[in-house]
Amino acid sequence: MTTNGTSISRRDFVKGAALGVGLGTLAAMGVYSYSPWSRKHLPQVKRNLADIGVCRRVKVTNISETSWFNNAELMGDIKGAGGLLVDQYTYNWPPFADGTGLGKGSYERGVAQIKHLLPNRLEEAWEIASSKGIHPDNPGGYAALIEMEDMDGKVHKYLLDSGWSYKWMDEAFKREGVDKLLASGEIEAFIVSHEHFDHFWGLPVTMKYAPGIKMYVPDTLYPSGFQYIKDSGHKGELVRVKKGLNKIAPGMASFMFEVPIICKVFGEQSLYFNVADLGLVSVTGCCHQGIILFADTAYKEIKYEHDRFHGLYGGLHISPFEDWDPKYDDLVIGLKKWNLEKVGCNHCTGIVTAKKFVEAGYPVIQGTARFRSKDRVYLGNGDQIEFKKA
Amino acid sequence: MNLSRIRPGGLGPGPGPRLPGLVSCLLAAAQFDRAAWRGLGFRGLRPSRRSGEAWTLRLAGRPGVFGLLFREEDESGPAPRASFSTHYFPDPAEPLAEALPLAGLALVESPDYWDLVRDFPARPDLAGLCETGTLTLAAHPAGSWLETGLDAPVRRRVLARDGVPLPGGGWLVPPGGRESDLPAWRLALPLFRVLAAAWALLLDEAPSRRLLRRDPAPAWAYDAAGRWAEVPDPGLARLHLRLGFGPAGRLPAPGPGFAPAPGGARLHLPRPDRAADPAGRPELLVLTGFLGAGKTTLLRRLLEEQVSRCRLVGVIQNELGEVGLDGRLVQGECVLEEMDEGCVCCSLAGRLRAGLLKITERLTPDLVVLETSGLANPLNVLEELPELADLARPGPVVTVVDAAHFAAAAAESRVALDQVRAADALVLAKADLVAEADLAALESRLRELNPLAPVLRSREGWIPWGALLDQVRPPRPARVLSLGDLRQDRATHGQDGFGVRVERLDAPLGEAELAARVRAAGPVARLKGVVDLEGWDGPVLVQGVRDRVELSDLPGPVPAERFLVYIGRG
């Protein structure tokens, strides 16, 4: 390629010249360090630093994190129905079951069996759906109660997601007193993170106690999803959250990520809190978009105290993709750069990974493994985590 | 054209760039189908958001890392149009690195090169020096058509007007000589093709229009003062490729100078490799190693990794409870079967078949792991696996070696040695309990026993399973030699040990000579090797089982030597 008539290779030249002195020396030797064919400026990435306000404290009570009880059954059903790209409403899992078998169901035929019983006769509805559905004892569900104390000391309550099984979720709601909180109007809003069966299909349980509650849902729900909100008896205000940042209250915002998710679901919103003197705290359903994207987005979009990502509760997948350098697929390494100060894991994290976190010295708040949560390393059913300046 | 698998409802409302988000959705949707993802050629992807929307990724067939960086989107017309710069960051070991401009080569040689690559948008020097071209994307807001293109010079040639002097006198590049001559188009095209194939896969249609334009392009020249000028060079050209999806009549009119692209291999888009297993059989991975070696921890980590990828795993163990998985912890995570007890050597296939049937009859696992304990000789298992070909595809053998106790185990039992010999990959567990010098000695002994298997040290039960399995999975063979049953003259069962013979090769072989050597080797249960074969570009992986000898491109790192390893009885 380049002929120089000497025995010094380009590599040797570059290594010798740059011995500890870098490109400066090379430039002095007639080597250019920038290229004229590249556009002059790389995209200037300004941090938007949107002000979402600040709050004093956030407490999360895990109502239920056991989305289902037998993973092999679940995965077997998904594969049997045709795989990860298939519409979840076709599985013939309760509550959308019509007895025609795995992969042959539909929202319309499924809901027709139980619509007249929603949302006040949930036991009957679930009985019917169970009798016609596949693996009716597998559904559990995900839901969390969030309490946010504002700077004036007032506590605001929110519900994140409504789980899956009517039976399981109603029991869990009663156990945590969420049924009463909903009925009394103390819970100000209900936020749906995404349309997945284990976060969304238990919707009628919330509607039973608070049909007039204000709901925030991603605007990318499928038509069946929006129809279900109606069919479940929702009578309150429905906020269809568009992509990007969505302020909810001082110190609290959701961010809607446009990302395709398995089982033909699209879009997930996750919650960001700016806690006074502490920093960013996030609460997610599953975080399908991955923690890297989640944290980078927070950095780019929001202003938060001390520029510190303080704490996290929820799913902990690094990324939907395998890295090209496998060591970065290790969550412990991948999360290091954010120096999280408090972490709560749930079933989305995985027991072995969660234990590794603990072994690696991460500040993982452990739980009590009650009510069918698998291990103390999870913030399990009934467990709590609080983020506030000590 | 149906965009709904990528982004339901078209592009969505503005304002703001919408096409980088569409690319994100494309990639996220494409990787749900793992087989297709890998079949297209993706080998790892990392989106980066810190300094602009960018992606770094590896592709099959190239050791370096590709980069894609969103530059700008023009929303002035009826359809948004975006441009992204494409980059190639060579692996420091590849000869192509030397084709980079010298300053680029200096960055490649720097110790934190890969960290720079990972965040390349923050480094305009690295990004610019490794830039290969521009990728374009335009899409109708309602999703009725989409067009993607690549603009790049065939070669980016730079002349140093005043030369590049050597420190001691003389010239590295004489005045007026070529400082660099990067084959930019050739390095940009693989990235473009993989993305175009992903569009085709998710849109479920082939491109309806392919256009090409060729322009003359100059070389660049710079002088010692840092001034640049274009230098006409009739040998150089710039290519513009456009692929359109959706009804051809609705695609926007191309600019002047475009003509239908010549058909043929250059524009051939990779197809996802579904033909790998039309019968849908799961892969059978054999996990072996002595009692207490650390298999269980490793297995649990594999299960979690597979579960996080939404893959269903079946596990077959013999002697459940001895080293067994903690039933409570993994219940429901995988499908667990126990094999009947009895002599492991005799009718192993029969009992394994029963376990496999139980699993595959009611479910369709992606992967079945056969965990054998210290007493079972995996070579017996390997011999029998072809009998199960209707139920499962042979997968790799992974042997866990207890770093602290291997020497003692090997002294007492042949099986420990056979476990190492049979392995496609070796995992060294409990390495933290052993001094570094002893570890190095152990690793070198393992390599002597098994020159081909990569040796990985596990950290608290963690190894990069994804990358490891990619490396050791038997690739689809490019050629198959039928040499009759390699196991002819097979001795009867019993406690005969296995023999292993390693034949080192000094010179490249022709296929006929390879066949002759294999025939001359006598009855063979298993054959594996790395050879240089005439007519092949690189080293060839040779694998023989039963009556086939398969020749494939070597995945993974290249060993220094060439050899054939025969494993047989007696």
Quickly describe the structure:
Chain A has 390 residues and is of the alpha/beta class.
Task: Describe this structure as you would to a colleague.
- The complex is a heterodimer of chains A (390) and B (570).
- Chain A is α/β, with parallel strands linked by helices.
- Chain A is built from 13 helices and 13 strands.
- Chain A starts with 9 loop residues before the first helix and ends with a strand.
- The model of chain A has no long low-confidence stretch (mean pLDDT 89).
- Chain B is an alpha+beta fold.
- In chain B, 25% of the residues lie in helices and 30% in strands.
- Chain B contains 15 helices and 28 strands.
- A nine-stranded antiparallel sheet of chain B has the order 1-2-3-4-5-6-14-11-15. Chain B has a seven-stranded parallel sheet with strand order 18-17-19-16-20-21-22, sandwiched between helices. Chain B has a six-stranded antiparallel sheet with strand order 23-27-26-25-28-24.
- In chain B, helix 1 packs across helix 6 and helix 11 crosses helix 12.
- The longest helix of chain B has 20 residues.
- At the A-B interface, helix 1, helix 2, helix 3, strand 8 and helix 11 of A face helix 1, strand 1, strand 2, strand 3 and helix 3 of B.
Number of strands of chain A: 13
Order of helices and strands of chain A: HHEHHHEEHHEHHEHEEEEEHEHEHE
Helix content of chain A: 25-40%
What helical percentage do the residues of chain B reach?
Answer: 25-40%
Oligomer: heterodimer
Number of helices of chain A: 13
The CA-CA distance between the termini of chain B, in Å, is 63 Å
Distance between the terminal alpha carbons of chain A, to the nearest Å? 65 Å
Query: Mean pLDDT of chain B, nearest integer?
Result: 82
Shape of chain A: globular
Low-pLDDT stretches of chain A: none
Structural class of chain B: alpha+beta
- Structural class of chain A comes to alpha/beta
Main beta sheet of chain B: 9 strands, antiparallel
Q: Overall 3D geometry of chain B?
A: globular
- Greatest contact pair? A-B, 84 and 105 residues
Largest sheet of chain A: 7 strands, mixed
